[in-house]
């Protein structure tokens, strides 16, 4: 069971989605839930079906005190690396909250201080804390919606299905059609990437 008793009524959970993808943004969300909030369905987004995530997205947006979402796009990812881009996405998501949190719970083990607000990194926090789990659901659903949108522009990569992750199908499409403006050029897109001409 996820924990939901926070040290303060304005404690934000934050998480990201899309770190390991070859294309598309890294997306983060930050969520502040009511202090005694309970939802038995809420869990790490990776353990939920797509349908369940979509249902929970609506519930979280309705029942949270505040939520914020932010995308960091491939050009920036290539410039500052994926770890820094992931942290930047979480910072931007926190900025998009309508109220500044008093404490921040971060999924993972790396973060940079945000506005001198105290924080704590929790490995696999999306399976331990309700506000991080809520952030993981929003980050995943917003990113998936973005990937479905750009799928319409480049359907040959099947981003609607693979979401930009390095599936065999995605790599074969890169080999066949080359790269798009949505690909992360700093990532190893193909095993023989050095032979690719950009």
TrEMBL record:
<comment type="similarity">
    <text>Belongs to the RNase HII family.</text>
</comment>
<dbReference type="InterPro" id="IPR024567">
    <property type="entry name" value="RNase_HII/HIII_dom"/>
</dbReference>
<keyword id="KW-0963">Cytoplasm</keyword>
<feature type="binding site">
    <location>
        <position position="15"/>
    </location>
    <ligand>
        <name>a divalent metal cation</name>
    </ligand>
</feature>
<protein>
    <recommendedName>
        <fullName>Ribonuclease HII</fullName>
        <ecNumber>3.1.26.4</ecNumber>
    </recommendedName>
</protein>
<dbReference type="GO" id="GO:0032299">
    <property type="term" value="C:ribonuclease H2 complex"/>
</dbReference>
<dbReference type="GO" id="GO:0006298">
    <property type="term" value="P:mismatch repair"/>
</dbReference>
<dbReference type="GO" id="GO:0043137">
    <property type="term" value="P:DNA replication, removal of RNA primer"/>
</dbReference>
<keyword id="KW-0464">Manganese</keyword>
<dbReference type="InterPro" id="IPR022898">
    <property type="entry name" value="RNase_HII"/>
</dbReference>
<feature type="binding site">
    <location>
        <position position="16"/>
    </location>
    <ligand>
        <name>a divalent metal cation</name>
    </ligand>
</feature>
<comment type="function">
    <text>Endonuclease that specifically degrades the RNA of RNA-DNA hybrids.</text>
</comment>
<keyword id="KW-0540">Nuclease</keyword>
<dbReference type="GO" id="GO:0005737">
    <property type="term" value="C:cytoplasm"/>
</dbReference>
<dbReference type="GO" id="GO:0003723">
    <property type="term" value="F:RNA binding"/>
</dbReference>
<feature type="domain" description="RNase H type-2">
    <location>
        <begin position="9"/>
        <end position="198"/>
    </location>
</feature>
<dbReference type="InterPro" id="IPR012337">
    <property type="entry name" value="RNaseH-like_sf"/>
</dbReference>
<feature type="binding site">
    <location>
        <position position="107"/>
    </location>
    <ligand>
        <name>a divalent metal cation</name>
    </ligand>
</feature>
<dbReference type="GO" id="GO:0004523">
    <property type="term" value="F:RNA-DNA hybrid ribonuclease activity"/>
</dbReference>
<keyword id="KW-0378">Hydrolase</keyword>
<dbReference type="InterPro" id="IPR036397">
    <property type="entry name" value="RNaseH_sf"/>
</dbReference>
<dbReference type="InterPro" id="IPR001352">
    <property type="entry name" value="RNase_HII/HIII"/>
</dbReference>
<dbReference type="Pfam" id="PF01351">
    <property type="entry name" value="RNase_HII"/>
</dbReference>
<dbReference type="GO" id="GO:0030145">
    <property type="term" value="F:manganese ion binding"/>
</dbReference>
<keyword id="KW-0255">Endonuclease</keyword>
<keyword id="KW-0479">Metal-binding</keyword>
């Amino acid at each position: 069971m996820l924990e939901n008793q926070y040290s303060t009524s304005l404690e934000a959970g934050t998480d990201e989605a899309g770190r390991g993808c070859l294309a598309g943004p890294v997306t983060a969300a930050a969520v502040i839930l009511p202090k005694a909030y309970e939802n038995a369905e809420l869990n790490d987004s990776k353990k939920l079906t797509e349908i369940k995530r979509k249902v929970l997205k609506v519930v979280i947006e309705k029942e949270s005190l505040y939520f914020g979402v932010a995308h960091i796009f491939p050009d920036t990812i290539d410039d500052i690396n994926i770890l820094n881009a992931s942290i930047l996405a979480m910072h931007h998501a926190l900025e998009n909250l309508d109220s500044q949190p008093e404490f921040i719970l971060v999924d993972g083990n790396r973060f940079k201080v945000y506005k001198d607000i105290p924080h704590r990194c929790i490995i696999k926090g999306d399976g331990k804390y309700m506000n991080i789990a809520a952030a993981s659901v929003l980050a995943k659903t917003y990113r998936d919606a973005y990937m479905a949108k750009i799928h319409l522009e480049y359907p040959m990569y099947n981003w609607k299905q693979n979401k930009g992750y390095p599936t065999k199908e995605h790599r074969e499409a890169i080999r066949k059609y080359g790269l798009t403006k949505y690909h992360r050029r700093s990532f190893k897109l193909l095993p023989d990437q050095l032979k690719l001409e950009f």
